Amino acid sequence: MKKHNERDSFSQKAMQAMKAAVRGVIKEHKKTGRPIYIWENGKVKKLSASKL
Questions:
Q1: Residues 1, 17: contact at Cβ < 8 Å?
Q2: Is 31 helix (H, G, I), strand (E, B) or coil?
Q3: Does residue 1 surpass a pLDDT of 70?
Q4: Which residue, among 25, 27, 22, 30, has the nearest Cα to 48 in the 3D structure?
Q5: Gap between the Cα atoms of 49 and 28, Å rounded
Q6: Backbone phi, psi, residue 34, to 5°
Q7: What torsion do the CA atoms of 25, 32, 42, 22 make, to the nearest 10 degrees?
Q8: Among the four 3, 17, 19, 52, which has the fewest Cβ within 10 Å?
Q9: 23-41: per-residue pLDDT in tens?
Q10: How far apart are CA 29 and CA 22, in angstroms?
């Protein structure tokens, strides 16, 4: 059972790190006025900095 808990903990830490990284990128793009590109409904979508 210990290995299962270690995997869950690692997954949670990885998800937290990814969310923190995305927040940082969005913050930087807002600051510099650059758009963000996301994947939505099978297509690339451009979001302007003002809409972030």
A1: no
A2: helix
A3: no
A4: 30
A5: 10
A6: -85, 145
A7: 10
A8: 3
A9: 999 999 999 999 999 999 9
A10: 11
Q: What sign results for the dihedral spanned by CA atoms 14, 19, 42, 35?
A: negative
Residue 43 tokens, joined: 């297509």
User: Which residue bears the tokens 């600051």?
Assistant: 31
Helix (H, G, I), strand (E, B) or coil at 25: helix
| Number of folded domains that form the chain | 1
Domain of residue 11 covers 2-51
Which pair of tokens denotes residue 30? 């807002």
Please give the Cα distance from 30 to 11 (Å, whole number).
Answer: 29
What the block records as the tokens of 52 is 């972030």
- For position 2, what pLDDT does the model report? 55
Q: Could you say which DSSP state residue 41 is in?
A: T
